[in-house]
Amino acid sequence: xxxxxxxxxxxxxxxxxxxxxxxxxxxxxxxxxxxxxxxxxxxxxxxxxxxxxxxxxxxxxxxxxxxxxxxxxxxxxxxxxxxxxxxxxxxxxxxxxxxxxxxxxxx
Length: 107
Hints:
Elements: H1 5-27, H2 32-46, H3 51-63, H4 66-92, H5 95-106
């Protein structure tokens, strides 16, 4: 069974709507680095359940030329930079205004 794209899009919007205020709450109490690590923790915890997929992806990685490798690594760097900038904007003002700017910029 495949979930319709619009259901997942609405679900993502709802989850992000909860996530931004949680980030704001956390940043008032702990450091940016700790918040970043906490947001990455679930990925680390579920990674062992996807061992086969990760091994297969690593095999593909080894076959890639430099250009495609750089673009894949850019994914990680832009994700980190985007998260840091978002979290700094939330800490600098608030989650509501940061999310509104994000919505406007994405439109």
